[in-house]
Amino acid sequence: MIKSKKLSKYKTISHGFFDKKGGHSKGIYKSLNCGIGSSDNKKNVNKNLKTACQRLAPNYERLILLNQVHSNKFHFLNKNYKNYKKKLTGDALITNQEKIIIGVLTADCVPVLIYDKNRRIISAIHAGWKGIYKGIVRKVIKFLFKSGSKSKNLIATIGPCISEKSYEIKKDFKTKFLKQSKKNEIFFKKIKNKTYFGLNKYVYYQLKSLGLNKIDIINKDTYNPKNNFFSARRSIHKKENDYGRNISIIMIN
Fold it and tell me: Which tens digit of pLDDT belongs to each residue from 38-56?
């Protein structure tokens, strides 16, 4: 489990970015696969989820995850959160409730954890390129602003994801981003006729452009097997038929 130096300063919350280690799954899912949507043994996945939660906070009440669809949709879990009987669809969660662990699953996409130290409110964001392009990060931050948060009180951590050097993209991908804004050119790098995209740089830029200054980046490339994370792109390149998911979670104590 990796922790953010900035978020770790606050004893009012618990958080963690988990890699593959310390779970119950076998084969290509070895070992802490937290992907309910994967083809892994569901009993093992549930054990893995429990393992991660207990490492974070032994006294948690409930873990809430999403049916992630690479959208810009988020959910605010207020005091009526217990009424949510079915799994929510979207790509970000926000809550001000204690003892509720919220989290996102990734396998190269960017997990973002946010804390408002004054209002004691947290968020977990699944930021793949499609979701970022559609504005998931901006929508969450603007919701926090609208509900009373100030940019100076928000602490954000950009978790382990695929690095720029591992993220080769095609021409139409870059064209799409440049149509959105010519400024997006800075997130692309060309090396020997190949183009690469800085996914976490793009997230960082969006957070900075909204006035956030307290931002951590955990520079761990999920594609690099030495870092011991699940990676969708690496699994595809190895011609595996599925892949595990890494979990990133946060809770108000």
Answer: 999 999 999 999 999 999 9
Beta sheet of 62-64, edge-to-edge order: 13-17, 246-252, 100-106, 62-64
Give per-residue pLDDT as tens, 155-187. Answer: 999 999 999 999 999 999 999 999 999 999 999
d(CA 55, CA 18): 10
Domains of the chain by residue range: 7-163+215-252
User: Does domain 7-163+215-252 fall into CATH 3.60.140.10?
Assistant: yes
Strand order, beta sheet including 92-95: 74-77, 92-95, 121-127, 110-116, 154-158, 214-217
- Confirm if 115 and 122 have CB atoms less than 8 A apart: yes
CA distance 159 to 109: 9
Selection from 251, 232, 226 nearest residue 61 by Cα:
251
Task: Using a cut of 0.85, tell me whether the model's pTM lies above it.
Answer: yes
